[in-house]
Design goal:
This protein is an alpha/beta fold. It contains 12 helices and 15 strands. It binds adenosine-5'-triphosphate and magnesium ion.
Amino acid sequence: MRILLFSGKGGVGKTSLAAATGVRLAQLGYKTLVMSVDPAHSLADCFDLKSSLFDASTADPQEIAPNLSIHEVNIQQEIKRHWREIAGYITSILKTSGLNHVEAEEMAIFPGMEELSAMMYVNQWRKEQRFDVIVLDCAPTAESLRFVSMPTTLDWYMKHIFPMQRGILKAVRPLANRISPVDLPADSYFANVKDLYNKIEGIDTLMEDPQTTSVRLVTNPEKMVVRETQRAFVYFSLHGLTVDGIIVNRVLPDEVRDGWFGEWRESQQHFLGEVEAYFAPVPVCRVPLQQREVVGLERITALANLLYQEGGDPAAVTRTERPYTFTRTADHWEVRLNAPFAGKGEIGLFKKGDELVVTVGTVRRHIGLPTSMAGLSPVRARLDGGTLVVEMKEAA
Ligand SMILES: Nc1ncnc2c1ncn2[C@@H]1O[C@H](COP(=O)(O)OP(=O)(O)OP(=O)(O)O)[C@@H](O)[C@H]1O
Ligand SMILES: [Mg+2]
C-alpha cells in the first residue's frame, strides 16, 4: 500500500491537488481512497457532491467514481465509535466546573483526536488491504505536523505517563473517590486509551518508510508561502517522513499578458527559481492558475492532466532516501538528519533516556535510538551542507 500526504500552507491548493491525484490513481486502476484529515472538510465540495452543507455521508468511505472513494473523518461519529470512555470522562470533569452538558461535550474534543482517528483508519485499511493507495488531504502545515507526530507522542505517553498514572490511581482511588470532588478515571478509561494505542500500532514504521509513505508539499510562487514550505520540509524530515515532491500551484500562465499582472509575473519567476534551487534534488513541478475554480470531476481531471504527464503514476516511488539515518564510522556512531534551511542557533539537542531529543525552531522530536546506540551520548554536532550530523560516543 502507498500513502501520499498532501500538506502545505492554508489555501494553496492541497485539497484540489489531492483530489486530482486520486482521480489519476483511480484511472490507472489503483483502488484509491482520498481521505480528508482537515476538520474543515472540503473534499466533498471539491468533487461537487450534491450533499447538504453538513452532510455526514462521507464519514465512511464513499465510492464516487470507479476505483475512487472519499472519506471525511467526522469527529462526532468517531467519538461514538472510539472515544466514548475518554470523552465521557473529560466531559464529566468539565461538567463539575459548571459547564452545561453540551458545552462540556464540545470541549471534550481535544486537539489531536481527529488526527488520531484518521490514523486508526489508515492502519485498519492497511491490515484489511482495502485500498492500494491512500491520499491524505491534510490540514495546513501545523496541524499536519500534529498528525504525523501523533504516533510518537502517544508512544511517549504510553511509555512514560500512562503506567505511572495508572499505578498511582490504583493505589489512591478508593480513598480519593471519597474526598475528591472530581471522579478519577475508571479502569475503562485506561482500557480505552490502550485500545486506541493498539489500533495505531505499527503506523509510525509505515509513515517513516519511504517505500510506503511520501509527503508532497504544495506551495505557491510567493515569498510567505515558500518560506513556510521550507520550514515544513525540515519539520517533516525531523519526524522521519520523506518529502518526494514539491508542487508549485497557481503559476500565472504565459497567455496572461495583461500589464496589471506584470509585477506578479516577475515575482513568481523569481520564487519559482528559488524553489527549484532550494529543494533540489527533490523534484519540483508547476501547475498553472486555472481560469476558474477547480470544482467537479471534470475540472479535477483537467488539473490531474496538468499535474501528471500522460501515463504518469503518482504512486511511483521516486525517493527512498530516509530523512535520518544511523551510521557507524571508525570510532563513533552518527545520527544524520536532513535539515536544510536550518541555522546553527535554531537546532537544539539533548539525550533523554534512550532517546535523542532534537528541536528545530518550535518543533521537537524524540528520536528513539537503536539498542546498540542507546547507551551513547551526543558529543558533537555540526551542520554539513544541510545535514545535521550528531556524533555519539560512550560517555567517558
Ligand atoms: N491551479 C489553480 N487554479 C485556480 N484555482 C485553484 C487552483 N488550485 C486550487 N484552486 C482553487 O483555490 C481554492 C483553494 O484550493 P484548495 O481548497 O484546494 O486549497 P487548500 O490548500 O486545500 O485549502 P485549505 O488550507 O483551506 O484546506 C479552491 O477554490 C480551488 O478550487
Ligand atoms: Mg483543503
